[in-house]
Amino acid sequence: MSVDIANNLKNIRDQIESSRVESLMASENVSLIAVSKTKPVEDVLSAYEAGHRVFGENKVQEAQKKFKDIGPKRDAIELHLIGPLQTNKAKEAVETFDVIQTVDRPKLVNALSKEIKKQGKSPELYIQVNTGEEPQKAGVLPSGLKDLIALCHEQNLRITGLMCIPPVDEEPSLHFSFLSKLAKENGLPNLSMGMSSDFDLAVRFGATHVRVGSGIFGTRDYSNLG
Predict the structure, then answer these.
(1) Of 142, 203, 208, 198, whose CA–CA distance to 171 is shortest?
(2) How far from chain centre, in Å, is Cα 169?
(3) What's the pTM?
(4) Least trusted range by pLDDT, from 68-77, 114-123, 172-181, 217-226
(5) Which of 11, 44, 54, 153 is least surrounded, with the fewest CB atoms within 10 Å of its CB?
């Protein structure tokens, strides 16, 4: 079944705006990140032709190939890394992405700092916070956030926001509210929170960026990824 990407984008934007105007906590502007992981470059181009310019990918190598294939259009796109980043991929991540949302440990901070200085680039960086303190999930624990932010400032990194992925079995609004509080306490303007199932709720709690994949591009097929 074909997916009407342009219509899906319009519907999501309409929902974002509806949630935004109904909440006193909402950000004045909310950026929709179209998460194109596992999707072909043709889907990215469909969204691009519909006027969309902000995309998210989970894996460095997939993003490298996909966004290289779109040629000059890449210059108009803001590309976010929203998946976990290994330190040995720091070089490629800095080369490929405009925003890296998953900074979560000192070793990664140091690796990114080294590459940013070497490449002369200045990507925006968000710190991923493990708000549910789940042992299997990436993200700095809330108790370690201040120290990690301090390290980023020492390295002169461009930290502008926080990101979280709430536990699947807990009420997401509690985590969105908590992340918003942490961002205010640390003077960070950007909040990346909310996905296809709960982005409207995230907007109500102050998200500046929401990450929507299947709601735009349809159900993902992982069978061909090996």
Answers:
(1) 198
(2) 21
(3) 0.95
(4) 217-226
(5) 153
Q: Residues 54, 74: contact at Cβ < 8 Å?
A: no
User: Are 99 and 123 contacting, i.e. CB atoms less than 8 angstroms apart?
Assistant: yes
CB 34 within 8 A of CB 56: yes
- Give, as one character, the DSSP assignment of residue 99: E
Whole-number Å distance between alpha carbons of 93 and 62: 11
- Complete domains list, the chain, with CATH: 5-217 (3.20.20.10)
Residue length, the chain? 226
In the chain, what are the helix, strand and coil shares in percent, each to the nearest 5? Answer: 45, 15, 40
| Residue 168, SS3 per DSSP | coil
Q: Return d(Cα 145, Cα 166) in angstroms, integer.
A: 17
Encode pLDDT of 44-70 as tens digits: 999 999 999 999 999 999 999 999 889
Q: Are 95 and 81 in contact (CB under 8 A)?
A: no
